[in-house]
Amino acid sequence: MSLPKVSVIIVNYNGKALLEKCLESLSKVNYENFEIIVVDNNSTDGSIELVTKNYPSIILLKLNSNKGFAEPNNIGAKIANGKYLLFLNNDTIVTPSFISEMVQVIENDKKIAICQSLLLKPDASIDSSGDFIDHLGVVYNSTKKTDEIREISSARGASMLIRKNIFDILEGFDEKFYVSFEDVDLGWRTWMIGYKVILTPKSIVYHIGSQTIKNKKPEIAFHGFKNQLSMKITNFEPSMAIRNTLLFFIHYGFRELKIWFDYKIKGTTTLTATDYENKIAEKPSFKIITKSIFWIISNPKYLLKKQRQIRFSRKVSTEALMKMNIITNRIQ
Question: How far apart are CA 255 and CA 267, in angstroms?
Fold first, then answer.
């Protein structure tokens, strides 16, 4: 029986040193039926020359500008020949069996649409064992150690395998997101149409993390905050979207006020790693929050269109997802 083809899609922007290590690790993968597509965001650091000179079998797409994360991955997916798409960050080092472990699991359950590798930091501590969405639509990263396959709210785009037909049904990553939380949005929408997202802990990938975006913190903070607001508006049912967005701002405001009070009055702070989405996104300034709200107000047609599309395709309600612990009140 032949192995299903997997299309590995890597988006790169001036990440030559990282990309070289990633591609070297991919050359040692024991899965025999996969292709590699590199989508380059107009790099100027020799990344393109690296691929063309040393990896002639790789499909290279050269874009004329930096288009972020969502759109380049969608561009790569359109030319992919695989039954499965495997989105992989350029700042990862893969292990030989990382593809075969995910394919084995997803092939055995037609209801599984997305698998995430267990992401480890270079020191082998856990970087991510899946993301979870709470009842207000806030996203938390889990670093729980587990050896068991488990359901998660969404998979990290650093190493995510998805059925191509499901990716096409969902119309891919939301390109309005540009960068940040597009993988969460995709996972959330996957659950709503009746499919599952899981962590495959035997698929191991080392993730350096945030290398391509480290010099763009204000921009990432803006996209992170406006994308979270966007998801609440489109992915919750309309009445719940309004309520949860208001509750989020009340909760966020009180939390920030308490942090300010503790710091200014008491001389202490209770801020911890979990106080802002477990550091999934950069903490936004008041200016960025205002800019994000203005973006939401300025894009009603997009938000309403997406909300309607989700409503018509939805098979699983938020209430049902809460009962399944996919929308949860605590970090898993």
Answer: 16
Q: 283-309: string of b/e by CB count within 10 Å (b at 16+)?
A: ebeeebbebbeebbeebeeebeebbee
Type of residue at 119: L
Q: What is the DSSP string of 202-269?
A: EEEEEE--S-TTTT-HHHHHHHHHHHHHHHHHHHS-HHHHHHHHHHHHHHHHHHHHHHHHIIIIIS--
Burial profile 121-154: b = 16 or more Cβ within 10 angstroms, e = fewer? eeeeebbbbbbbbbebbbbbbbbeeeeeeebbbb
Decide: 71 and 175 in contact? Cβ < 8 Å. Answer: yes
CB atoms within 10 A of CB 35: 17
Structure tokens at 84: 């499965």
pLDDT tens-digit profile of 28-81?
999 999 999 999 999 999 999 999 999 999 999 999 999 999 999 999 999 999
All domains in the chain, ordered by first residue: 6-207 (3.90.550.10), 217-315 (no CATH)
Question: Inter-axis angle of helices 47-54 and 16-26, to 10 degrees?
Answer: 30
Q: Is the pTM of this model over 0.70?
A: yes
| 72 closest CA partner among 41, 101, 96 | 41
Sign of CA dihedral 207, 22, 172, 222: positive
What is the number of residues in the chain? 332
